[in-house]
């Protein structure tokens, strides 16, 4: 099974419940799941009855990153690697960012790599007090893609993004709350109820105002720096960002993980 992104409704049909489900891999995102994420949020954006989205992981974890078992099939080819990040991954993340319906993320267990990226695209982030956050892909021999790194740095803060990526640090929920990434930390047994309560509170408020507020926030983010020094810079980085695809370091990191041994860089 390649995992699944499910769209359901809670109660009276005003709250969309989106669940990342890949239980045998702590809800790691497969290529199919990234495409489904885009499809689900495109559908939510096009509908008029949703007042809030509750985004969660199946079982006891939010999302443990990417499905590394798939990586040897495409990551060592520049064109395929670029398509994965620029089309599949960013397509999914962009659809979340473009959604005008408020999104509450309920984060339990592992929130790594792709999980941090998806959470960064949400509006309200609440987590269990034992949740863990990180992006230890340096152990796998590759960097975070430019657009994804830009998103995480903007929401989590550049200092935190540098620590996660350069040190492969794993931070607890209380620390991420102190750094401003999380809005609330709850006990694991109360997390889902608290997240649903927040979603229901949002659902009672004016939906048009919420959508307009999100459009305003999006416009402010886009206007925070001149295009020629911000977006154009990212676009320029992307041109050569995936040239490492066939490097020995990249292959060693992924092979070591799949072989369950320490990587030798």
Describe the structure.
With 265 residues, the protein is of the alpha/beta class. It has a single domain, classed as 2-enoyl-CoA Hydratase, Chain A, domain 1. 45% of the residues lie in helices and 16% in strands. It is built from ten helices and nine strands. α1 (31-46) packs parallel to α2 and α4 (146-156) crosses α5 (158-166). The longest helix has 20 residues, at 78-97.
Element order: H for helix, E for strand: EEHEHEEHEEHHEHEHHHH
Quaternary organisation of the protein chains: single chain
Q: So what's the overall shape?
A: globular
Biggest sheet layout: 6 strands, mixed
Number of domains: 1
Extended strand count: 9
- Count of alpha and pi helical runs: 10
What is the CA-atom radius of gyration, in angstroms? 18 Å
List the helices and strands and how they pair.
Layout: E1 4-10, E2 15-21, H1 31-46, E3 52-57, H2 78-97, E4 103-107, E5 110-112, H3 114-120, E6 124-128, E7 132-134, H4 146-156, H5 158-166, E8 170-172, H6 173-178, E9 184-186, H7 188-203, H8 207-222, H9 231-238, H10 248-258
Parallel strand pairs: 2-3, 3-4, 4-6, 5-7, 6-9
Antiparallel strand pairs: 1-2, 7-8
Helix pairs in contact: 1-2, 4-5
Pfam family, one: ECH_1
Family: Belongs to the enoyl-CoA hydratase/isomerase family.
Organism: Ottowia beijingensis
Keywords:
265 residues, alpha/beta, 2-enoyl-CoA Hydratase, Chain A, domain 1, six-stranded mixed sheet, three-stranded mixed sheet, 10 helices, ClpP/crotonase-like_dom_sf, lyase activity
